[in-house]
Amino acid sequence: MLFEGTAFELNRIILVRILSTVVLVTLFLVAARRARLVPGRGQNVAELALDFVRVNIAEEIIGKATARRYIPLLTTIFFAVLAMNITGVIPGLNIASSSLIGFPLVMAVIAFVAFIVVGIRSHGALGYLRTTLFPSGVPWPVYIILTPIELISTFILRPATLTIRLLVNMVAGHLLLVLCFAATHFLFFEAAGALKAIGVVTLAAGLAFTLFEIFIAALQAYIFTLLTAVYISISQEAH
């Protein structure tokens, strides 16, 4: 759309990401600025959403004693992922902002940096590596196998699986919706005779998958944030 061929090229998915970010930030700014001791409907919704992350993810996984310092990070991750996912079912946008690898990768890198920093702060750099790669209570010959597994699992597979899980789920949902509604358009407007009736089936399937995609958008935001909290919890505790 703009700046084609440059590092600042603006295409459709980047535009959708910008719109998602603006809307998300605006909603929370409005909720925060209008906060009252006796909350109204909008503030109630905002507080319920924030409490969901605080109680069901941060405090449940990390523990009430230390969860508070990580709530801003986990809340940002949850609502950013949710906002980018939900654009896939919004008319006029019709593409999940997380269905291209850039956004899932950035979120995974943020989670990766977060749990590494927590581990270093809790145990020191050498202490964190020792507790991660050389868990106590294991016979030393087992470390020959265990240490490479822990190295790959912690420092490669964690960010990789966070990225791939989010990306693939949203791409799959997008393809299902495209197939259903493209088939519906073809059957209603181009197919001949009795084939047109099948368009009702594909339309119903498209609507059902749309509802399912809303559920998946929220579920993937929850899973991504939950796993980030789990990794933070593991990093701050000794094995």
Automatic annotation (TrEMBL):
It is a multi-pass membrane protein. The keyword Cell membrane applies. It comes from the Bacteria. CDD domains: ATP-synt_Fo_a_6. Belongs to the ATPase A chain family. This is ATP synthase subunit a. The keyword Transport applies. Keywords: ATP synthesis, Cell membrane, CF(0), Hydrogen ion transport, Ion transport, Membrane, Transmembrane, Transmembrane helix, Transport. The chain crosses the membrane at residues 12-32, 70-93, 99-120, 140-160, 166-189, 201-234. Pfam families: ATP-synt_A. It is found in: Cell membrane; Membrane. It comes from Cellulomonas phragmiteti. Key component of the proton channel; it plays a direct role in the translocation of protons across the membrane.
